[in-house]
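Support reply, case 0932

Customer input (verbatim):
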Amino acid sequence: MFEAAFEFLHAEVSPRANEIDGNLDALRVALRGLCDCGLMALKRPEGYGGPACSEPEFRAFQEEVARASGALAFLQTQHQSAVGLIAKGNNEKLKQEMLPKMHGDEALTGIAFSQLRRSGPPITRATKTDGGYIINGSLPWATGHSLFRNVLLGAALDDGSSVFGIAPFTDCDTIKYSPPMRLAAMESAQTVSAELHSHFLPDELVVDLKPPGWILRNDMINITLQGFFAIGCARAGVDVIRQSAAQRDRHSLNQAAALLEKEIAACRGQLQSAQAASEETTQEKLELRAWAIDLAGRCSHAAVAASGGRANSLNHPAQRIVREAIVFTVSAQTEAIQEATLRRLTRS
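Our regenerated output:
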């Protein structure tokens, strides 16, 4: 399965990555390709259709998608996250209804709960009522509008816990979505915000209830896992250097690419080892995440240097990869990750 997936990404996605980054229809075609290959529910349990791929396999796939196209990587991981949350939730009927369809395009689902990371009063609140919950407030980030059918949202309850559930990803009487945001990178992924006014979330669409602080603990588990997107971005930068070396027959460019590839391999290996050892947050994991982010930035910058003045064109892949490195620097960023990243970037 993964051999075919990597072939699809290399043959169909990478050559069109710039178009995918700026064109909604091109991204839609790439997304459909992943659906047709059955690659959109990789962590789905066997009882609901599988393939229940291992963590190393899943992260290798995520790395390869990020290497091929940041926009496609960013879009598909929203749905993969929704699949994982539904699979781990306690609503068995919802699992039976949704999970078997989530490998394709019948039940594509985004996520909108990053606001739960914010300190201070919650901006999305839920109140228990007969048969479900009433939700009011804002969803500042939701990616996949017009590409996904549903959104898995999160809202805070008065006791500090949170309810997660499925809502429509289109305007209705109680949910209004903004136009797509203007973004430096991955704009084609259609990221929007939303306002909810007394939206009713029925119990049958509740994915799960999470205890206070759940999202922060989940972020701690994912500290190294998110680093594989940055590794994929770094590899995309090296790909551009290799292409420039072939075009110019420059030994110095191949030498630079080889040195960066060696460092990427070392970072990847340590990320894998750290995650396999424990899910707990450690200083080592924070430093490894910062290293991966640093690599994405340096490799994308090296791709610019290797490409010369051409890299200043919006149509050049090095330009796109630099902007993708920005996104992978701040994705699922916590205060601890931010501090570790800044320490690495400011070391003498």
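We compared this against your earlier run and they match. Two observations from our side: Residues 251-277 form the longest helix (27 residues). The CA atoms of residues 115 and 140 lie 7 Å apart. Please reopen the case if you see a mismatch on your end.
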